[in-house]
Write a structure and sequence with these properties.
By secondary structure, this protein is an alpha+beta fold. α1 crosses α3. The chain has a single domain, classed as PknH-like extracellular domain (Protein Transport Mog1p, Chain A, 3-Layer(aba) Sandwich), CATH 3.40.1000.70. The N terminus is likely disordered. A hairpin with a 5-residue loop joins β3 and β4. The chain is about 25% helix and about 30% strand.
Length: about 210
């Protein structure tokens, strides 16, 4: 996820992600039918930054390392993962992941799995690092396609570094998308309304 977490905290977060231990049962990888690739957000569809414009990276195959603090591939099939990263000039960043599964049932289970990982992320961070205090918030669901949910995560290290992230999980048919936004700050700095709009756009734009 796109938080500026210091080196000692990053190790703890990676361990936390791997400790989630949730396993999804589904048919073997490769069962997913080939279809049109889902579309991604553009830079202009991210929450506006007050002083810097967004820059979008290329759409890239694979799972983004930036989501590893809360969301990972541990216990999940090797689906068709693609992602796009976004940056501003002022240490605000974002990433969108799309995952194409084999069936709508698999996608529903995967979306719940990712949302559960995000929901429990703050507890796992604190369990795995005594140097970090973490708090999660639920910003509710969005009525888009098969649904989406938005959550927030704030972390503060013992040396005073604070980071705020917004994360969402949405689904359209057998495709799941995860969107993450983050910068230095706390919950008061989170553009929740704009991020909900971004999430709605991301899910609607998949197909």
């Amino acid at each position: 996820m796109p938080m500026r977490i210091r080196a000692s905290a990053l190790t703890a977060l990676t361990v936390a992600a791997l400790a989630a231990g949730t396993v999804l049962t589904a048919p073997a990888a490769g069962a997913a039918q080939k279809a049109a690739a889902p579309k991604f957000l553009s830079a202009s569809q991210l929450p506006p930054h007050p002083t810097s414009s967004w820059t979008a990276g290329p759409v890239t195959e694979g799972f983004p390392e930036g989501l590893g603090a809360c969301v990972s591939t541990e216990g999940v099939l090797d689906y068709d993962y693609r992602h796009r990263e976004f940056r501003t000039d002022l240490e605000t960043s974002a990433v969108q992941l799309t995952v194409v599964t084999g069936t709508a049932t698999q996608a529903k289970a995967l979306a719940k799995h990712y949302d559960d990982l995000i929901r429990t992320c703050a507890d796992r961070i604190e369990e795995n690092s005594s140097d970090i205090e973490a708090e999660g918030r639920d910003y509710g669901t969005l009525p888009v396609e098969e649904g989406a949910r938005v959550r927030g995560l704030h972390t503060e290290t013992s040396w005073g570094a604070t980071d705020i992230s917004l994360l969402s999980v949405g689904r359209d048919g057998r495709t799941v998308t995860v969107v993450s936004w983050g910068q230095m700050g706390d919950f008061d700095d989170a553009p929740v309304a704009a991020f909900k709009k971004t999430t709605t756009t991301a899910v609607n734009k998949l197909y």
